[in-house]
Amino acid sequence: MYSPILRYVPLLLMLVFWQLLTVSGLVPPEMLPGPLTVAGALWDLIVSGELVTNAVRSLSRAAAGLVAAIVVGIAAGLFMATFRPFRLLVNPIVQIFYPMPKSALIPLVMIWFGLGDSSKIFLIFLGCLLPVIVSTYNGARGVNHFFRWSAASLGATKWEVLREVVIPAAMPDILAGCRTALAFSFILMVSSEFVIAKDGVGFLISSLGDSGTYPAMFAVIFTVAAAGFAADRLYAAFARNQLRWREP
Amino acid sequence: MTSAGDGNTTVKLPAEALQGQRTSSAYRLALGDAGVQAAVILFLCVLWETVTRLDLVHPFLLPPLSQVLQRLWEDILSGTVFVDLALTLYRALSGFFIAAAIAIPLGVLMSRSAALRWFFDPLISVGFPMPKIAFLPIFILWFDIFDTSKIIMVAFSCFFPIVTATFAGTSAVDKWPVWSARSLGAKDREVLWEVVLPLASPQIITGLQIALPVGMITTVVTEMLMGGRGIGGTMITAGRFADSVGVFTGIVEIAFLGFVVIRSLEYIRGRLLVWHPESRR
Predict the structure, then answer these.
(1) CB contact residues (below 8 A), chain B span 198-217, against chain A
(2) Which residues of chain B are in CATH 1.10.3720.10 domains?
């Protein structure tokens, strides 16, 4: 493979192309501000502290909803896979709500919790919950029976079988489900803040757009996109580290 | 499948008969499970109605199921539900198909040409995990608030999962079938259509199955932000006017639409991959 710098040359080329496009005057600057203008606007937003405060608000909401969804989702998925009555009770609900576009719940949380933090946290929690439940359930259900039976025949209690056999064996699926949930948390964070919010990066983007300060709007959009990318890469590194005991 | 009570088969080997019995008992078990699950849903509906009738929750927070169903029925009679569902479906599917029409050929080309791979791989691997919905205001700025910007936004969100899956699927195709086809005199194009694409199709379809829900989420958000018709627009209007029956009716409608769309794609996968070992489970 190429060295990392050479690998990202195409991104640099796109930036240069973008700059040339704006300098050449082919597109009106209010439709597409140049990368240097956007970088300047980004610097102003950072210096004024506006970006940081809003980003902290948004990220803390996303983190709260996501962590709650991961904890509840893994527990529910494992419980579904091991305890049949619970599975029969929960599975129909999961099956109905899993294919539903979670953004449709935005008006619902607006009615239930108003415009504050709790509505967004609850939305992110609900949206991230189902992918975690489904992938945990599928992972735990797919564990080879012989592993469980061998552990049980060696005298492991039910709890030990779960902790020492089922959870490690289901770990790849659980981690994949959490990665989906991480992506969902960003999508739902931004879209709920577009629609119902008084602060946060989504609100910042739409208010900058409404006031026509497009360079700043572009700057915040690219910051959010970069944050989503960085979060995914960090998570992927963490997941690889968790699974390093597996054969490649 | 031969079942144990099937009268058409003349001679039955013991193993086959045993298998037939096993499948029929597994079938009965699955049927029992389905019955219990249907009962659970029915019970929840009854619980919803009773709790609201007994005034245990505020009707604004949870309107009675009967009112929601009544509103749904009125919307069906007046036809608004069909307009909303059709508009949402039209936007979601047009964006989805535009994305597929660009992403699948690009993914295939990337696995065949080193230059294209060099150029697009970093762009796609950076774009894939980004929350694409954040770019919505840019599309509104460029294409105004009507269908064009909505569909382009949906296509943009659907594009990355499909191209990633197609690229991964076509590059991971086993070398032996390709070499066998070549040695039997297949041309490049025949190898592509007869060997590479069929072998990569499970992964490509998985990419489509990831993209479609993302497209639906995006459609609903764009409709909520830009207003107008479509389920998202109707729901957010209901929410703004504190019409909680309208919000719940919208949720029932969108849940139905999502269920139908996702299940249809699963069905299509089963039909297209009927030759594949995964269908034989």
Answers:
(1) 213-214, 216-217
(2) 65-280
